[in-house]
Amino acid sequence: MRTDVDHVILTRFNLPSEGAESTVRAKEGWLRTRVELFERYCLPSVENQTVRSFNWVIYFDPQSPEWLKARIDKLSRGSVFTPIYRARVSQAELVTDLRAVTGAKAPRLLTTNLDNDDGLASDFVARLQQVPVGEQRAAIYLVHGLIRSGTGLYLRTDRANAFCSVQEDWHSAQTCWADWHNLLGRTMNVIEIGGDPAWLQVIHGTNVSNRIRGRLTTVEAFEPLFGALLDGAVNPGRAALARDLLVARPGRYARDLGREALKRAAMSVLGKEGIDRLKAEWASRPVQRNQVSR
């Protein structure tokens, strides 16, 4: 157990935000789908970590419906996460909350972002905490992960993924929420960690940015790290692997190149706030809600 770093995993569940996204996150269907995904993927993946020397803070809207508050109260009893209800979280409030939860016993703070519909490999925390403590603030990325779409599993490398962490001194803490996960490298050093897949993203009807990326892969090699999170995923046959290699992957690559070009253009015109509004408007479209597979 490390004593030189206080480690906190941070999750926004339905934290209110300005604009259309706050309406999306208040919708009954969105909330119920996210609770299902949280219980199916996110919560068990954190509970099954091989190293338990961390805290997990999840932020909720104080105006959440009573059924959600009751469910979270039940799930948090004796669990690994601490629910905090806030209408908004400023930088100062965030650091204050983290000090209260951890006791700020160590000289350094390590924060990790985890979305409520994603999952972690069982050794994610162990591998992250093996990173040596440095003197400068640094963003840390475990760059390899998996993407699940239905019964398909894809191996993905993302050098600035959403499972970002920031290691820094307590006295000047900015946390992993200091900027978009793919922009942290603009203001701090970056450490990239390779190795086995460390995270799992799930493609479903209510996420905005995630889409199939990477290459289609078999399941067995990753079951020791992800366990029940891969239940229902199937091994592709040779024909499916060949089709993915020769047809689907080149198509996804071309699609992503186009999206990146559009994103850069949008960033230059709209800025971060404008892009956030576009994402929120997309997420607010009517979506048929399906039962999460177990």
Any overview of this molecule?
This protein is α/β, with parallel strands linked by helices and 294 residues long. It has a single domain (5-283), classed as Spore Coat Polysaccharide Biosynthesis Protein SpsA, Chain A (Alpha-Beta Complex). Helices cover 36% and strands 20% of the residues. The chain has 7 helices and 12 strands. It has a 7-stranded mixed sheet. Strands 5-11-7-8-12 form a 5-stranded mixed sheet. Helix 3 links the parallel strand 2 and strand 3 (81-85). Helix 1 (20-26) crosses helix 7. The longest helix is centred in the last third of the chain and has 46 residues, at 238-283. Residues 287-291 have low confidence and may be disordered.
